[in-house]
Structure formats: C-alpha cells, structure tokens
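Note to self: keep these together.
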Amino acid sequence: MQIEVSRDVFRLAQVFTISRGSRTEAKVLTVRLSDGVHQGWGECVPYARYDETLESVEAEIAGLPAEFTRQSLMDLLPAGAARNAVDCALWDLECKRAGRRAWDLAGLPVPGPEITAYTLSLDTPEAMQAQAAQNAHRPLLKIKLGTPDDMPRLEAVRAGAPDAQIIVDANEGWSAAVYADLAPHLVRLGVALVEQPLPAGEDDALIGIERPVPVCADESCHDRASLPALKGKYDVVNIKLDKTGGLTEALELRKQSLAEGYQVMVGCMVGSSLAMAPATLLAQGAMVTDLDGPLLLAEDRTNPLIFDDAGVHPPSSALWG
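Structure:
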C-alpha cells in the first residue's frame, strides 16, 4: 500500500468567525492510497480544539505499517482526523477495486439529497441580520453563538429570515444557568436545536434540567465510547467524520446512537466536497444535516458535490466512493 499525504488550502468565500476565532481559509490534509492499480482518496481537517495540527496528523499517518485494512486501522490509529482521512481513502479504494458504490459496500439503500444547514458567521447583530436576509431563502440556518451578546444576534437573525428554521451552536460557550435563562427565548424564536451549550468537561450540569429545546452533543461525542457519558444530558448526537475517525466508526456510532434513543445530526468541519462526500451516507434520514463546508468556500475540488433546492446530493463516483 502506497500512502501519499498532501496539504491543500481552500480560500473561504468570506471571513468565517466562531467564538474561538476567525479564519479566511480551510487547511486540510488529503490522503491518497494506491495498490499499484487503483487509487482512493480522503480528506481530513485537523482541529486545534482536539490538539491536532497538520504536522501531528501527518506524523500519525506516516507511522502506519505498509499493510492494513479498515478493520486493523481501528486499532492502529485513535479516533480523529488522521484515521478519518485514511479510512475514507480505503473506502474509496475498495469502491474502485470492486466497481461498486460505497453505499452498496456498506449495505445501505441508494442515498438521496438531504437539506443541509447553512452556517452564518458570528458577527454584529446588524451584520448577522444582513447575512440572514441574504440567505433567507434557505430552509435551515445555523447560527454560531457562545458570547455574552447572543440574544441580540439571535433576534436579528430571526428578523432577517422570518421563515427559516434555525439551529444554534454555542461552541461550549454557555453555562447551564445561561441555557436555562435563554431556553424560553429560544422556544419563542423557533430554535429547533442547540449544539454543545456547555464545555464538554462540565456538561454534567445538564443532568436533570428541563430541555425545552433539544440539546446536541458535539464536542462531548466522538465515537461509540462517548455514548455512556451522554445519558441524561443530551437528546441528539452530532456525528462528524473527523471526530469518529472515519466512515467505518461513524456508521456504527449512528446505529448505536439510534438504538439508544438519540436523534442524529451529521456535521462537518470547514472542508471541501471530498470531506463531505462520505458523510452524505450518514445523513440519510438524520434529524439535522449540516454539511455546508463547500458552500463556505470560494473554491472546491473538481467534480464537487451538488447543492440545490433539494439539498446536498450524494457524490459522483468521480469525486469519491
């Protein structure tokens, strides 16, 4: 097995800001696997929140043995960005070898388009209202919050897009008291979901409190090993390939989460269509699909995913799987 790792940079369409900072580009790692005849590829986005850098993820991949499978990879690398890119590249390689699509190999029905959220960057209330108005035609908007001035921003977005469904992502920026205080206003403004209101290490405070708006575990949920600690705190889990360490684990996490009574959100880091492509399999029938990474870019891969009024469509075989 030959492994090639490259760094790619995609310019963003505009500055993208969350409570942790701003960026103007998406820096990703692309992994290509070749058996000498066929080639598969995958993408990951190293995330500083999980102590990942481009260098550290490259080093993890460089330490792999010459031969491995999707199954052995689960023991060779931990859940995270490195394993994600390699696992998704293996799926693509298997598809190329078999001449079949990824959903066939996974035993899944043929996927269709899914409506995806579109994320509004954190900004002043006035600027966020303008963003909302510009995107008011979209059925689902996601707002990045997690600051002391969240309510004016939320009110502004609702004024700018009165008919869109709204979900909010606090990015660990609230406390249980803040959530409880804001909850009636979230209900009044028609917010359908709140992502990770509390820091992952402090979310025991969610146990036993009333949750009139469903609460979704993001930073608190990585793979199946995360599920026992979520009981009594969360209603939804956000499955991201860069957290699970690839599609193989993500499919199992989705199955187990649903079996344990959680609803599922399928999310993403800010990456290209190659990073989103495997996640379209997970998104089928999810409560929320949030695969808008390519919509935030000024440039994308060749043969990108199609986004239209029906949502984000599954990838062509020319892109992945």
